[in-house]
Amino acid sequence: xxxxxxxxxxxxxxxxxxxxxxxxxxxxxxxxxxxxxxxxxxxxxxxxxxxxxxxxxxxxxxxxxxxxxxxxxxxxxxxxxxxxxxxxxxxxxxxxxxxxxxxxxxxxxxxxxxxxxxxxxxxxxxxxxxxxxxxxxxxxxxxxxxxxxxxxxxxxxxxxxxxxxxxxxxxxxxxxxxxxxxxxxxxxxxxxxxxxxxxxxxxxxxxxxxxxxxxxxxxxxxxxxxxxxxxxxxxxxxxxxxxxxxxxxxxxxxxxxxxxxxxxxxxxxxxxxxxxxxxxxxxxxxxxxxxxxxxxxxxxxxxxxxxxxxxxxxxxxxxxxxxxxxxxxxxxxxxxxxxxxxxxxxxxxxxxxxxxxxxxxxxxxxxxxxxxxxxxxxxxxxxxxxxxxxxxxxxxxxxxxxxxxxxxxxxx
Length: 412
Prior knowledge:
412 residues, Growth Hormone, Chain: A, 2 domains, 18 helices, 80% helix, 0% strand, globular
């Protein structure tokens, strides 16, 4: 990577494998991957709006029911890389299909769970597929795409997450409110079955993982300075904006003055911004990885400052919510492309670790925000704190990518 930008040719050189580079953009296969990721991520978001229903039905407190969310995130963050290592020899298509079948089974078990502990076990089983499935989907997308369109391919896969945020969570919650929370698990399982069939029909046969590497080599990849830098920037930047976003509803209602219905609409606006940003981030990262990261981190920090200054303004805050969604969504493709490129272009473990870094950032941001609010910090102050954290990520990313343009001795 050059000091000023990362060209498409440099990015493709990092991501290229020993297989012949494809010439056409595989829209159908990418759509199947995106649909499958949508089903997977909807399971995570849909439960947020049903905690009260679960607590009543299974005779636990709302706080206890909330452990279904935190346990899921921890299982994704900790268990994901382990599952990836254990499945490192499995062909990508076979692995994706197997993981999705386990995910379907987990949601069926969740729908049938007779107790809270059984539901927790089912959720944990489903969560263990999350990081590895996302990683192998990105790996497949990159292998099927032309070298100059690989960040866009990553954006296609990540768009499933954006759709889950915009549609999966709200629709799942609405289904749960109408027919009970178990119906939501059945619907998620059904969506995953559709994704499974799409992958089975639309992904090519004989897709390899590239050169076969030992487990020791795969783990050694995570010690590379550029990989570690990418993982750190992912976690830090995610924590920065999540420290406020975790408590965006109280800010919108208590500070800005929106009603509950309007605040819900703005969450859709945030999701729409993330969906647009994800597509934009993929296209921009194909041109310049470093530039995309720097400008989107700068936009994210500036938008958080804007909320800190003008949270009482409904118009300003509405625009800011959309921009936070856009900037945070636009960061996903270049962050994944950075880690994948630094890992040599074929490491599912590095991608799984980066998915874990996203989840760790979410958890750290949410936890930090709760601690600050409990100590008496105003919710608007979280915007300033988040802006400072994102600014630190910006400085770190710019410095790390500048260093990455210089020759580095082998680590593993």
